[in-house]
Design goal:
- The longest helix is centred in the N-terminal third of the chain and has 17 residues.
- By secondary structure, this protein is of the alpha/beta class.
- Helix 1 packs across helix 2 and helix 1 packs antiparallel against helix 4.
- It has a 7-stranded mixed beta sheet with strand order 3-2-1-4-5-7-6, sandwiched between helices.
- It has 10 helices and 7 strands.
- The structure holds S-adenosyl-L-homocysteine.
Length: 219
């Protein structure tokens, strides 16, 4: 990554910390913590997104634009940042404009279930951080992805049970785990795990289910 990209990524963090005083976007309120827990953490999935098929990238439940904006800047991919909360996507519209990213980054104000209808099978790669458990992410992502497209899940802790349940649903949802990497951030103590799913088949049920079902009535 070059200096311009680094500068843009840091400015995104500054703008979010500033906007956070008015709009609730993140628990993190210092640049120091943000550099670790937002910037470094967001970029920790760079190798996974670079290994994914070329094409449209989407960040599901983007909040303040993490990991979506740092990854859009680092990769230059055409990017859609999706969140159901309008005041969050509105802040991001301002950030995109300020950073001069409008040519390749835009927001989607709406639920992922609606994104899956409006941009059906359109995405080559998706990310999700701090959104839902793995099986729910698989269900939400599947109808958004093209065949061979990948879902990169940013996780802190994953229980054996959560992972087992995700594995059980692989065939049903047409999504299977293709990589799983655990590591620690540069503070030496923040544990992270990145699990990547690939859409390898058509799901065995019609997706998306009704709005809210994936999260409220998980499979
Ligand atoms: N990815 C960000 C924010 C995580 S909080 C980060 O890691 O910092 C989860 C976000 O997902 C919230 O902003 C919430 O509004 C959004 N969200 C939750 N369910 C959603 C859904 N079904 N569709 C769209 N956005 C959703």
């Amino acid at each position: 990554m070059n200096e311009t990209q680094q500068r843009l990524i840091e400015r995104h963090l500054d703008l979010i910390i500033e906007a956070n005083k008015i709009t609730n976007l993140t628990r993190i309120d210092s640049v120091e913590d943000g550099m670790l827990l937002h910037v470094e953490d967001s970029l920790s999935g760079l190798q996974e997104i670079q290994a994914a098929p070329e094409g449209l990238y989407g960040d599901l439940g983007t909040g303040g634009g993490f990991p979506g904006i740092p990854l859009a800047i680092a990769t230059g991919r055409q990017t859609i940042l999706a969140d159901s909360v309008g005041k969050k996507t509105k802040v991001l519209d301002g950030v995109i404009e300020d950073l001069g990213l409008s040519d390749h980054v835009s927001t989607y104000h709406g639920r992922i279930e609606d994104l899956a209808v409006d941009h059906r099978f359109a995405f080559s790669v998706l990310t999700a951080r701090a959104l839902s458990q793995l099986s729910i992410l698989m269900e939400l992502a599947s109808p958004c992805l093209k065949m061979g497209g990948q879902l990169i899940c940013y996780k802190a802790n994953v229980s054996e049970e959560e992972l087992e349940h995700a594995r059980e649903l692989e065939k049903k949802l047409g999504m299977k785990i293709v990589s799983d990497r655990s590591f620690t951030l540069s503070d030496g103590q923040t544990n992270r795990r990145i699990i990547v799913f690939e859409k390898f088949a058509k799901p065995k049920l019609s997706l998306p289910r009704k709005v809210g079902f994936a999260q409220k009535k998980p499979l």
